[in-house]
Design brief:
It is built from 4 helices and 5 strands. It is of the alpha+beta class.
């Protein structure tokens, strides 16, 4: 039986087109206090995600905070290493805001518009499913760089 590596390398294959979209999930450590959705911390984490987007380190289609983890739909420039970008964001937020992150993260490449819609819906419904709010619109801890036309239009509209 093959042993699995202790560390995932998150290498994007060369045949994946530039700008491919990834679902990224980053978990806070079990002993992380305060929770990520504490208003002041949530504002700082969303601002850090927005800053990475504005600096071109990633293209953020969706960034949503849960109390103990982050969901994001991100695309990375061809010359940027996904692992380096995520690691640096975690490092900055740990140093500046005291967040304790679990090692590593989850990533999944989104292969088509249908999967993008389903993943968007899954992420936006996550707080509702976990009984943290009454409706998706009630959840304040998210940000998207998409324009309202693209956000609510045919590409990433509500549930598919």
């Amino acid at each position: 039986m093959r042993d699995y590596p202790l560390r995932l390398h998150h290498k994007t294959p060369g045949w994946v087109k530039a700008g491919a979209l990834f679902h990224i999930r980053i978990r806070a450590a079990a002993d992380q206090k305060p929770v990520l959705t504490t208003p002041a911390l949530a504002a700082e984490l969303l601002a850090a995600a927005r800053q990475y987007h504005e600096q071109g380190r990633w293209c953020c289609e969706l960034f949503l905070l849960m109390p103990d983890h982050v969901h994001a739909l991100l695309a990375f420039p061809r010359d940027a290493d996904m692992s380096v970008s995520v690691r640096n964001w975690k490092r900055v937020t740990a140093r500046m805001h005291g967040v304790v992150w679990q090692p590593n993260y989850f990533d999944h490449r989104i292969r088509n518009d249908q999967e993008a819609k389903a993943t968007w819906a899954y992420i936006r419904r996550n707080p509702l499913v976990k009984h943290l709010c009454a409706t998706e619109e009630d959840w304040p801890h998210w940000w998207s760089a998409l324009s309202p036309t693209r956000l609510f239009g045919s590409v990433l509209g509500k549930a598919p």
